[in-house]
Specification:
Largest interface: A-B, 22 and 22 residues
Strand content of chain A: 5-15%
Largest sheet of chain A: 5 strands, parallel
CATH class of chain A: Alpha Beta
CATH architecture of chain A: 3-Layer(aba) Sandwich
Structural class of chain A: alpha/beta
CATH superfamily of chain A: P-loop containing nucleotide triphosphate hydrolases
Helix content of chain A: 55-70%
Oligomer: homodimer
CATH topology of chain A: Rossmann fold
Distance between the termini of chain A: 6 Å
Number of helices of chain A: 10
Chain lengths: 196, 196
């Protein structure tokens, strides 16, 4: 074990992003999360707003549209964006040590031996509590919001990777942050990264 | 986090049993693995041989028989054995601190807050190597044997728990022992168990 990159896949509200940022800080390496949107926009030629829209809305549409409508939606723009995403993530990995949160980076970098693949999850109730506490999300029932985001992320992951979202076998380590605590997760990943 | 029991679910050849035994030794608590067969026999009234046969063969049959044959097989004996298994595992958990390997103990004890639920896995090639090295299994192609056992375990788990085998969200921690090493997994679980 000797890692250069950590990818963090995470359930909404599990604290995966916080864990990524804190681990990166402790290791003195950059953490890429929201920054990836701008990079993908740059790479693909879409605006940041378009990237965000395509990202969520197209996957959301998948849930409600007919097969014919899906076929129309799923063509050029999405493929272009996915290709841009792969390129951005592969280039970041080449550039130097870093932490990458989300965006199927675990699958995009799955053949790199220098990459520690992490999954962070927690039970629905704890995540619902957390999104209210940390993000101040109050516009809709938090448990409903958690379930909706879970579904969106699952669809997105499975659509692009053709793999099962949340399968432990796709990760070197999977942690229940609600049970183990965010601090424990951060320390453990720091230790793993530094281990020879 | 404060645990009394550790359940270890594991892929065949991943070293999950070794990890369970070593953690139990370090913690000075019993580890139940093969011993469960005798206890289940005792509880159910079947012989140990019958338990072993029912265990594997019935699940194996599921792969090859018709629906009508399955219906005939799946009745009394299997249900009786599953009930005995639940009872044995619940009683062990009541009795005192321990490590329990396999037998869907994670699902049987899922409502106990004093139980740390662990999944151990590794990639197929590493597991195939390990079964030759450690168990000396040479009677058939090791990779074929690994795949067959994976299928059996998956069927068994999903049949009785109605849950997805290997889903990270069912465990507090899931570890790739081929990547992280058995020693690292043992130390980590010991630390987690002892943490307040």
């Amino acid at each position: 074990m000797s890692y250069k990159i950590i990818t963090i896949s995470r359930q909404f509200g599990s604290g995966g992003r916080t864990i990524g940022k804190e681990v990166a800080e402790k290791l003195g390496v950059p953490c890429y999360d929201q920054e990836l949107i701008a990079m993908m926009a740059d790479e693909s030629g879409f605006s940041e707003e378009q990237v965000k829209e395509l990202d969520e809305k197209e996957v959301r549409k998948k849930l409600i549209t007919t097969r014919a409508e899906r076929a129309l939606n799923s063509s050029y723009m999405q493929s272009a964006l996915w290709i841009a995403q792969e390129k951005v993530i592969q280039e970041l990995a080449e550039k130097g040590p870093c932490v990458i949160v989300g965006r199927c980076a675990d699958r995009i970098l799955k053949d790199r031996e220098d990459t520690l693949r992490v999954f962070i999850h927690a039970d629905q109730d704890k995540r619902a509590e957390r999104i209210v506490e940390v993000y101040g999300e109050r516009d809709e029932a938090p448990l409903h919001r958690v379930r909706e985001k879970d579904k969106l992320r699952e669809n997105y992951y499975e659509r692009y990777t053709r793999d099962q979202w949340g399968d432990a076998r796709n990760f070197h380590i999977a942690l229940d942050s609600g049970e183990l605590g965010i601090e424990f997760c951060v320390e453990l990943l720091e230790k793993l990264y530094k281990a020879e």
